[in-house]
Amino acid sequence: MRSLRDAGEEKRCVLDLGPTSSANIAFITDLGMxxxxxxxxxxxxxxxxxxxxxxxSLLTDPSKFFAENLDYPASHFDAILCWDVADYLPESLxxxxxxxxxxxxxxxxxxxxFFHSKDAGPDSPHCRYHIVQNDTLEFEPGPEFRLQxxxxxxxxxxxxxxxxxxxFFLGRDNIxxxxxxx
Length: 182
Fold this sequence. Notes:
Layout: E1 13-16, H1 22-30, E2 34-37, H2 40-44, E3 50-52, E4 58-60, H3 62-68, E5 77-83, H4 85-88, H5 91-104, E6 105-116, E7 127-133, E8 136-141, H6 153-159, E9 165-170, E10 175-181
Parallel strand pairs: 1-2, 1-5, 5-6
Antiparallel strand pairs: 3-4, 6-10, 7-8, 9-10
């Protein structure tokens, strides 16, 4: 493996939004990069972020959530591994999360996200992703999170409309891989 760091350049930084994975940490640090980890799905389940609306419904409050999570400076990361977070995150956090991630990415930074390509029902398993090699991921059933939605390509394009490019790849197991460039 070669380092992505040029001589005299600061170490590149990667943000992993999934549960901590020793395989991911080892892979990224072996490339000479710094890795940061935030399990936003687990954090979003904290009852302190849920507020009762006037109609009696419950809503995860984005202001409360982002006051305590993903507190990084603008243009801090070279890459973000978003995995399939958007499919499982409470609806009220999805758009603010993507906006926050865009500001945290450096210009020309990359964001990798996975999206379910068909609704396998609310019991579609959430997976924990482990980078094994340059071209290989392993995934294992992760914590119990309920699939909230399935985004179609148009929804994904709109969600990431402020990114300079979006490339879609059809993956295995009804998953679309989308690579965005800020």
